[in-house]
């Protein structure tokens, strides 16, 4: 099937199907629909299901029950938070302040966070979880015998099923050639990007994510990390 | 395949095949768009054909400010507006009991029970796996528009579209092979 010709407008598709767009957005999307084969086919193919989703009373009831269940759960969590308020536990502020202080010390000191890596396959590949904008917490220790590094991170702005462009650059820029690794994205928005361990030399790097090589606007991140020798 | 601009150039130059291709392309889309607005299958067909006729009469002499598609869509919107005004007038005359006999009944769609059963089963799975989609869909069912839903869910518009898009993908995947 063809690809959407204007992804920025195409992302309104489901909101349009559900009649949730403002009049201006609806007009924008409908003009797009006249031009875009992909979105038109998508709407046609899911037309019956959407009619049920929007018009059937049993469906509406199921959705309402599920949403109310979620609200009740949130409310229970809210009650738990209220129970933990300082009124009932006068020392909670001191404990909370100590916890915040400890967290700050941990973040500020790379010494305590040398490893955020785990070896998954006995020397085959090493998985590293990346946190956005935090160079201190993202460290890779190159272990001997490890061939590949898999970077794992939550990419909120990414859309599963669409291709994304990943790039790793050394800092300061130009010290090493940029790396364009292969990556994938699961339905929960978690991205996995794989690089050869031999491509990474000790130093600082930044991993960026964009929709394509030509479109440099970030989908999520950037993710800074430091590579240390073993 | 030629782009719309290329087809339009050929049609204006007198190529009948290009012209047929343009109007075939427009007609199916116009029927879909009109049906969403007027909720009447035959009415949507009439509106789409009427719009295509007007476009056919005028497009060769027209200067398109934005694009041909935007102009054609404008013609369709005007036809939909006219049709809705006529229907409103008809409702008024029906209330007074002095309508001509040629009135048409609005079509009632038969619900596909098997599809409904499948959809409900999948929807339960998707809502359980994606609570934010459940809350967004519930608010949409209550008539809230995107900006209001964003305020209630405390998410940005971009994230709201992502929530809906993921919910839709999961639903389609489940309806396709039974798995999320």
Fold blueprint:
The complex is a heterodimer of chains A (230) and B (180).
Chain A: H1 7-10, H2 13-17, H3 23-35, H4 37-45, H5 47-55, H6 57-83, H7 92-108, E1 117-119, E2 125-129, E3 139-141, E4 148-154, E5 165-171, E6 182-185, E7 190-196, E8 203-210, E9 218-228
Parallel strand pairs in A: 2-4, 3-9
Antiparallel strand pairs in A: 1-2, 4-7, 5-8, 6-7, 8-9
Chain B: H1 4-12, H2 16-38, H3 41-58, H4 68-96, H5 113-129, H6 131-141, H7 146-153, H8 157-177
Helix pairs in contact in B: 1-2, 2-3, 2-4, 3-4, 5-6, 5-8, 6-8
Explained architecture:
The complex is a heterodimer of chains A (230) and B (180). By secondary structure, chain A is α+β, with helices and mostly antiparallel strands. Chain A has helices at residues 7-10, 13-17, 23-35, 37-45, 47-55, 57-83, 92-108; strands spanning 117-119, 125-129, 139-141, 148-154, 165-171, 182-185, 190-196, 203-210, 218-228. Among the domains of chain A are: 7-45, no CATH class; 114-228, Immunoglobulin-like, CATH 2.60.40. Chain A is flat. The N and C termini of chain A lie far apart (47 Å). Residues 110-122 of chain A have low confidence and may be disordered. With 180 residues, chain B is an all-alpha fold. Chain B folds into two domains: 4-96, Rna Polymerase Sigma Factor, Chain: A (Orthogonal Bundle), CATH 1.10.1740; 113-177, Arc Repressor Mutant, subunit A. Chain B has helices at residues 4-12, 16-38, 41-58, 68-96, 113-129, 131-141, 146-153, 157-177. At the A-B interface, α2, α3, α4, α5 and α6 of A face α2, α4, α5, α6 and α7 of B.
Summarize the structure.
The complex is a heterodimer of chains A (230) and B (180). Chain A is 37% helix and 24% strand.
C-alpha geometry of chain A: flat
CATH level-four homologous superfamily name of the domain at 114-228 in chain A? Immunoglobulins
Count of separate DSSP helical elements of chain B: 8
Question: What's the count of strands of chain A?
Answer: 9
CATH superfamily of the largest domain in chain B: RNA polymerase sigma factor, region 2, helix turn helix motif
Percentage of residues assigned to helices of chain B: over 70%
**Number of separate strands of chain B:** 0
Largest pleated sheet of chain A: 5 strands, mixed
* Gyration radius of chain A, rounded: 23 Å
Shape of chain B: extended
Specify the biggest β-sheet of chain B.
none
CATH topology of the largest domain in chain B: Rna Polymerase Sigma Factor, Chain: A
Poorly predicted sequence stretches spanning 5 or more consecutive residues of chain B: 103-107
- Helices and strands of chain A, in order, run as HHHHHHHEEEEEEEEE
């Amino acid at each position: 099937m063809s690809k959407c010709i204007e992804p920025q407008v195409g992302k309104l598709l489901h909101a349009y199907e559900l009649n949730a767009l403002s009049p201006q957005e609806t007009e924008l999307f409908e003009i797009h629909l006249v031009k875009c084969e992909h979105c038109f086919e998508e709407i046609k193919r899911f037309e019956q299901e959407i009619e049920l989703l929007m018009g059937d009373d049993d469906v509406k009831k199921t959705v309402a029950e599920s949403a109310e269940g979620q609200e009740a759960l949130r409310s229970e969590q809210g009650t738990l938070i209220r129970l933990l308020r300082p009124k009932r536990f006068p020392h909670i502020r001191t404990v909370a302040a100590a916890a915040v202080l400890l967290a700050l010390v941990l973040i500020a000191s790379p010494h305590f966070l040398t490893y955020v890596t785990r070896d998954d396959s006995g020397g085959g590949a090493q998985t590293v979880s990346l946190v956005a904008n935090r160079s201190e917490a993202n460290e890779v220790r190159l272990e001997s015998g490890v061939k590949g590094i898999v970077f794992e991170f939550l990419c909120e702005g990414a859309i599963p099923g669409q291709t994304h462009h990943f790039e790793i650059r050394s800092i300061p820029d130009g010290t090493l050639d940029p790396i364009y690794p292969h990556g994938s994205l699961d339905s929960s928005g978690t991205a996995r990007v794989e690089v050869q361990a031999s491509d990474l030399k000790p130093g600082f790097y930044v991993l960026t994510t964009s929709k394509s090589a030509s479109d440099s606007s970030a989908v999520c991140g950037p993710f800074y990390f430091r590579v240390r020798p073993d | 395949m030629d782009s719309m601009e290329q087809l339009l150039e050929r049609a204006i130059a007198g190529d009948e095949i290009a012209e047929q291709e343009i109007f075939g392309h427009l007609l199916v889309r116009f029927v879909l768009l009109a049906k969403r607005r007027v909720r009447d299958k035959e009415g949507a067909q009439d509106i789409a054909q009427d719009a295509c006729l007007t476009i056919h009469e005028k497009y060769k002499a027209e200067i398109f400010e934005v694009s041909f598609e935007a102009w054609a869509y404008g013609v369709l919107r005007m036809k939909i507006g006219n049709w809705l005004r006529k229907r409103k007038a008809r409702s008024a005359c029906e209330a007074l009991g002095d309508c001509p006999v040629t009135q048409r009944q609005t079509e009632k769609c038969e619900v596909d029970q098997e599809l409904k059963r499948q959809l409900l089963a999948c929807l339960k799975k998707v809502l359980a796996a994606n609570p934010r989609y459940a809350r967004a869909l519930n608010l949409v069912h209550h008539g809230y528009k995107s900006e209001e839903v964003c305020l209630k869910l405390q998410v940005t518009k971009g994230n709201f579209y992502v929530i809906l898009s993921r919910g839709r993908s999961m639903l389609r995947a489940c309806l396709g092979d039974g798995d999320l």
